[in-house]
Amino acid sequence: MARKEDSPAKWAIIREWDAWALKNPDDPKKLNGMYFFTYLEKEHPDLLDFKHPGDKWQLVHAWLLREHRVDN
Known about the structure:
Blueprint: H1 8-23, H2 34-43, H3 56-66
């Protein structure tokens, strides 16, 4: 059984983070990921269209942490 950590949604969001971070290299707001999550909600809601029983921000933040994209 695949874990949520291995989901296609996770990797799509990580790829989008990488592209977004390249366009915003000096933005200190990106450090905790919330600014990025807000960007996803506005610009790419399709990437957040996955089933999750809890808070999607918490899951996306956990993915970003585990993949060493954010600091906290």
